[in-house]
Amino acid sequence: MTKRIYNFSAGPATLPLAVLEKAQKELLNFQDQGMSIMEMSHRSSTFEAVLANAKNGIKDVLAVPDTHEILFLQGGASLQFSMIPLNIAQKDKNVSLINTGIWSKKALKEIKKQAECNVVASSEDKNFSYIPSISDQAIDQQSSFIYLCSNNTIYGTQFKQFPNTNNVPLVADMSSDILSRKIDVSKFGIIFAGAQKNIGPAGVTIVIIRKDLLARSDNNLPAMLNYNSFVDSNSLYNTIPTFGIYIISCVIDWIKDQGGLAAIETNNIEKANMLYEAIDASDYYYCPVEKHDRSLMNVVFRLNDTEEKEKEFFQEAENKGLSGLKGHRSVGGLRASIYNAHPREGIEALIDFMKTFQATNQSKSQVMA
Ligand SMILES: *Cc1c(COP(=O)(O)O)cnc(C)c1O
Fold this sequence. Notes:
By secondary structure, the chain is of the alpha/beta class. The protein is built from 9 helices and 14 strands. The strands form 4 sheets. The protein has a 7-stranded mixed β-sheet with strand order 2-10-9-8-5-3-4, sandwiched between helices. β3, α4 and β4 form a beta-alpha-beta unit. 43% of the residues are buried. It binds pyridoxal-5'-phosphate. Pyridoxal-5'-phosphate binds next to α3.
């Protein structure tokens, strides 16, 4: 078998090796059922136990209180941009939104189709390189909800604390940092995340919703777009993506084996700091993001050199088994996505590569000058 590379892709992203090996081992004959988990009825007791493990596991590790329901849906995180306003926007009330980049702008566009939506804070003036501060007064207490994106996958910024919204439900897109750190779930009306960055394969969306908000959904909503369809059926309104749920259940077990979110968070801080320190210590690389707002998940950086050199950096890194370091097409530059499952050794290898690349290329340009 060829060697596994270090995968810095923003998503779908690297999964824990132990999880992949377990899935491989169990692929043909799951728990002595004589068939794969993929071939099994989603209403079988064997599968229902897997679903329960995934759901209870998330409840445990994230400390989800009984006031909140955990749902597994399809349609990606992007469907939630529509499903959220369809279900919880209230008649004659506006929605407030904090604009921190492309993902919140996409949400804004969809929310506007259902309700009036006001941007109450934005970091667009500096190309989304920071998290705007938001005073409690700025939040319109008449809003049906306030929306933000906790980690900005493309720009490499992350909310370190969340605004106090009083009675207005806080809705957060946590697609790229869910289960990466401890959070107080009780502060949120809805948390949602596509699975493919930190929890499992593409095809499952996790929605954690405060139960009282479920009363807001109109009975005339299409059933597949109504949260209540999935609450009433334990996420089994229709065929759930069974294999994705199985991998999520394995990833949750892996998180527990690591020591839960406290240990995961410490590890994430150490990993990200290693890389940011290497970038800050060099005069060849720089990070365009304000220090206190830097993401622990997506480390965005640039070269003090031409864009051509950045391309060379990315291509040489690919050849050396450091994959997926190209920045998002809308911003350019470089980006190392280092989610929970990304091993420390991958970051060490990247730092080594950065030093070598600098030594070779910086001296070259100096000689030419
Ligand atoms: C990747 C990503 C999305 C989009 O997820 P899909 O599952 O592809 O719809 C939305 N928000 C954030 C913050 C993301 O990182």
